[in-house]
Amino acid sequence: MTVKINIRQQGAALFISLMFLIVLTLIGLSVANVGVLQERMSSNVRQSNVAFQRAEAGIRSIEKRVKQIAQGGSGGLGQIPIWSTTLESLGITQRGDCTLSGADTESWPWLNLPEAEVPETEYTIVELSGATADGNVFGSACRPMQSEDAGNPGQSAVYYLIAARAVGEDNVTEAVVQSIYFYP
User: Fold this and answer.
1) Cis peptide bond N-terminal to 144, omega within 30
2) Nearest Cα residue to 140 out of 83, 89, 85, 184
3) Which residues, 6+ apart, have CB-to-CB distance to 167 below 8 Å?
4) Which helix (H) or strand (E) holds 183?
5) Greatest Cα pair distance in the chain
6) What is the signed CA dihedral for 13, 14, 17, 21, rounded to 10 degrees?
């Protein structure tokens, strides 16, 4: 018995197999690329969350210190600047700019929180109460417009703008968080 081989069909199976292999390789590379991209995105989200949580912890730490000051302690914050002085030092002309968006965050008067409290975190604090213009007490968009003797939220309430900025564990990702705090 003799087997007759058709010369035209030699290598066709090899060619089709190679095409399938190339297609499967491209699909595999695409899936690997998507996996790497998702890993990077999740890492970025994690770093953002770490930075945000550190900044939030910094805000809460400063709020505790403000409460100590209001209760007659020192709080360790030193002389807290008032709103009008801070606006002037930053070159902001809009007193209602309670986010300080008119100034680059690098120019804010940042102070370091002790590393033991919250790592890689800085804060700034400004008193919003008692600012005057032409002898009249004024508020800002950050606090209620009221006279010094207004009863809400309390006659002795002092308002503060507290901001904290922190970086993630990668020392690149940054978060800035701001709070309007009054006590008592």
Assistant:
1) no
2) 83
3) 51, 54, 120, 173, 174, 175
4) strand 174-183
5) 118
6) -170
CA–CA dist 32, 30 (Å, integer)? 5
Find where tokens 């006279």 sit. Answer: 147
Residue bearing tokens 């309390």: 154
Q: Point out which residues pair with 182 in neighbouring strands.
A: 159
Residue that the structure tokens 């904290």 belong to: 164
Tell me the two tokens of residue 12.
């066709």
The pLDDT tens digits along the chain (184 residues) read 666 655 566 677 888 899 999 999 999 999 999 999 999 999 999 999 999 999 999 999 998 888 888 777 777 787 787 777 777 777 776 666 666 666 666 777 788 887 777 888 888 888 876 556 665 555 555 665 554 554 455 556 678 888 899 999 898 899 988 888 877 6
48 phi and psi angles, rounded to 5 deg: -65, -40
| 8 A C-beta contact, residue 62 and residue 162 | yes
DSSP string, 97-156: -TT-TTS-GGGS--EEPPTTTSTTEEEEEEE-TT-EETTEE---TTS----TT--SS-TT
Q: Sign of dihedral through CA atoms 97, 99, 104, 107?
A: positive
pTM for the whole structure: 0.70
Residue 29 burial (C-beta neighbours within 10 Å; 0-12, 13-18, 19+): exposed
